[in-house]
Amino acid sequence: MKPVLPHAQLDWDDQGRPYSRVFDDVYFSDKSGLDETRYVFIEQNRLAERFAALTQGGRLVIGETGFGTGLNFLCAWQVFEQHAAPGARLHFVSVEKYPLSPADLQRALALWPELKVFADQLLAQYVAIHQGFQRLTLANGRVTLTLLIGDALEQLPQLDARIDAWFLDGFAPAKNPDMWTAELFAELARLAAPGSTISTFTSTGWVRRLLNAAGFKMKRTPGIGHKWEILRGEFLGWPLDVAPPAQAKPWFARPAPLAGERRALVIGAGLAGCASAASFAARGWQVSLLERHDALAREASGNPQGVLYLKLSAHGTALSQLIVSGFGYTRRLLESLQRGVDWDACGVLQLAFNAKEAERQAQLAAAFPDDLLQVLDREHAEIRAGVHLQSGGLFYPEGGWVHPPALCQWQAAHPNIQLLTHHDVLELRQTNGKWQAWEGDRLLAEAPVVVLAGAAEIKRFSFSRDLPLKRIRGQITRLSQTSASQSLSTVVCAEGYVAPARLGEHTLGASFDFNNDDLTPTAAEHEGNLKMLEEISLDLLQRLGAANLQPEALEGRAAFRCTSPDYLPIVGPLADSSEFADVYKALSKDARQTPDTPCPWLNGLYVNSGHGSRGLITAPLSGELLAAWLDDEPLPLPRAVAEACHPNRFALRRLIRGKS
Ligand SMILES: Cc1cc2nc3c(=O)[nH]c(=O)nc-3n(C[C@H](O)[C@H](O)[C@H](O)COP(=O)(O)OP(=O)(O)OC[C@H]3O[C@@H](n4cnc5c(N)ncnc54)[C@H](O)[C@@H]3O)c2cc1C
Ligand SMILES: C[S@@+](CC[C@H](N)C(=O)[O-])C[C@H]1O[C@@H](n2cnc3c(N)ncnc32)[C@H](O)[C@@H]1O
Predict the structure, then answer these.
(1) 83-115, pLDDT tens digit by residue?
(2) Sheet with 417-420, edge to edge strand ranges
(3) Are 207 and 180 in contact (CB under 8 A)?
(4) Is 562 left (phi over 0), alpha (psi -120 to 50) or beta?
(5) How far is 312 from 324, CA to CA, in rounded Å?
(6) What pLDDT shows up at residue 658?
(7) Residue 62 is inside which H or E element, if any?
(8) Rounded to an integer, what distance in angstroms lies between the CA atom of residue 122 and that of residue 94?
(9) Pick from 645, 573, 66, 628: nearest CA to 323
(10) CB-ligand 1 contact for 266 (6 Å cutoff)
(11) What is the distance between the alpha carbons of residues 109 and 111, in angstroms, rounded to a whole number?
């Protein structure tokens, strides 16, 4: 059975206003939704004055229950633009069980012409919004929206953030009693920053009492329009008579933010390095991006076409959650690039090439909604693909191919980023609170923060030598487009993949070789790639002129993927490995212990690596994750997923297994 109701089910009144069928309630007041939002949420949280008080580099984090049409968000953004200093930032985190479809969102927001400049930016980024955490970067990174798609009571417990102002919205308590609960209010309290404010349009007595019991001090205040009274309040602190919420284990706790100069080195200018640099730069960091080659994206990230390939699990694993969130994030970034040359949203079809794969696909189709993936029988798959196929499969309508160097270039183009090519960092040294990058006896650059984004090469540094990264060689084959191969209209994958042509060439990929260290393309691997094409579509092979495809004469390119043992990337702050083993050695005797010794962080040292075969999906969001660790911001992923990607996971496992 398909998951039900992914999108809001709306009716529209005679003045074009949306009304929820499920909750039998209005999205905004029938008088003036805009005035009500401004009064209830913006004024009661004193946002204009708090935005004005933000310093250069300061930020305010707003949390909301019920994103709905995004009206509250757009109003907050507008006030932020009117009052905040140029270097300040706004974070808005909102949970939504039934996101509006893009068409409904557009229709609803058309009601507010004065918000059009903000609404247009939101609408342009409102793509690939699927379950779980979905991050949107707006206003060149000045505004960050993190949507948590799902039930508030299931999503908020996964959030790691400190909220400065809460908008408690979400239909009238009488119409939506499942949401307005003590459990929800405990989550709002858990996430509240010291001195956090809160407001809501309701004045219902039991809502006020439950919020007071959760640690807020609520006050009735005169309402607006037909609302006689509303509530506003402040967070006083976690109630003394309730057990405090669990803290993160020290090895996954946030390192103390670094004060002082906001300058960072990023070593490696592939997808991971460029994404890290872009996320830092958007937060006002000055970044030196060091690359040993003559340009960025010369290694794994240098293929002509890579596929937005989603290898999901129906069981909601950390990897699968990361993929859904990462896919959405990359997909939205691509909206700024040139379609047809830099990327194409032509969809991705994964063939059900054997019975086991067909069964896996059926499970996925039952677990995810149609706008993310759909099972197609062979006939419909062939219509989609424009060529005859060996089987039907799973179609991802929002997928496609990307020219990875274009994404890297776009990310590295931020004025705060300086790309330093021909800079091969051979050694890292830590002196006087700074990290220094050395090439022999030449000091290349120094800064208080450094990100290691050099794929498996990061093992050359003593600080990151223990990270279990492996290189896996892969080779793609370039095939000239023929007039008959022009019919290919989507990416098709089985064991390998083939993409519709970019600038007259199809990319066919990719081999896996665990033993070869030589990057010269080989005829044997071209042959292997052709074999994979044969399994995808004999018809396409013919259309490409099978007889002329002599492996020895084919052109291609080889590079190393970089994988970790659990296939999750390695993203986050690094600790000193020998001190780590020492301070947490009690874990080797009893894994359930939680020593309270702080983690021996290598202050300012961060990693973004291990993106395996799916860097296009995982690397850009990992840049955001890294920036969130660095700047103590809301994490763009569920806490458990961020921990599953944390560099400390390996040292921890080693200790628990007694191998340290
Ligand atoms: C054949 C092949 C096909 C693939 N197909 C896909 C696909 O279809 N979809 C997908 O999502 N992913 C695909 N991938 C995986 C994807 O390309 C990678 O996950 C991604 O490129 C990794 O990016 P990265 O920045 O971590 O590594 P890289 O792109 O390898 O970048 C690392 C950079 O760091 C530099 N560097 C390293 N050490 C130093 C140093 N000490 N000093 C200075 N510079 C340094 C390197 O020169 C390099 O430029 C494929 C990979 C291969 C090899
Ligand atoms: C009145 S609307 C919010 C209006 C919105 N803030 C705006 O600016 O347009 C209430 C929203 O809460 C959402 N909602 C209701 N119950 C929820 C729950 N349990 N978890 C998450 N969202 C919920 C609804 O789907 C709806 O979009």
Answers:
(1) 999 999 999 999 999 999 999 999 999 999 999
(2) 417-420, 286-290, 263-267, 449-452, 601-609, 570-575
(3) yes
(4) beta
(5) 8
(6) 74
(7) strand 59-65
(8) 14
(9) 645
(10) no
(11) 5
Q: Which amino acid is at 624?
A: E
75 CA: nearest ligand 2 atom: 8
> Could you tell me the CA-to-CA distances from 583 to 592, 593, 646 in Å, in that order?
15, 12, 18
The candidate with the shortest Cα–Cα distance to 469, out of 606, 585, 607, is 607
Q: Decide: 392 in ligand 1 pocket, CB within 6 A.
A: no
The owner of tokens 């119409």 is: 175
Q: Cα(232)–Cα(167) distance, rounded to whole angstroms?
A: 10
* Range 28-34, long-range pairs (CB < 8 A, 24+ positions): 28/68, 28/69, 28/71, 29/225, 29/226, 29/227, 31/225, 31/226, 32/225, 33/71, 33/111, 33/112, 34/71, 34/75, 34/112, 34/114, 34/115
**366-392 per-position pLDDT tens digit:** 999 999 999 999 999 999 999 999 999
- Count other C-beta atoms under 10 Å from residue 259's C-beta: 7
In whole angstroms, give the CA distance from residue 446 to residue 438: 9
In this structure, the residue with its CA closest to atom 11 of ligand 2 is 66
- Looking at this protein, which amino acid is placed at residue 77? W
Q: Is the CB of 528 under 6 A from ligand 1?
A: no
Question: How many residues belong to the chain?
Answer: 660
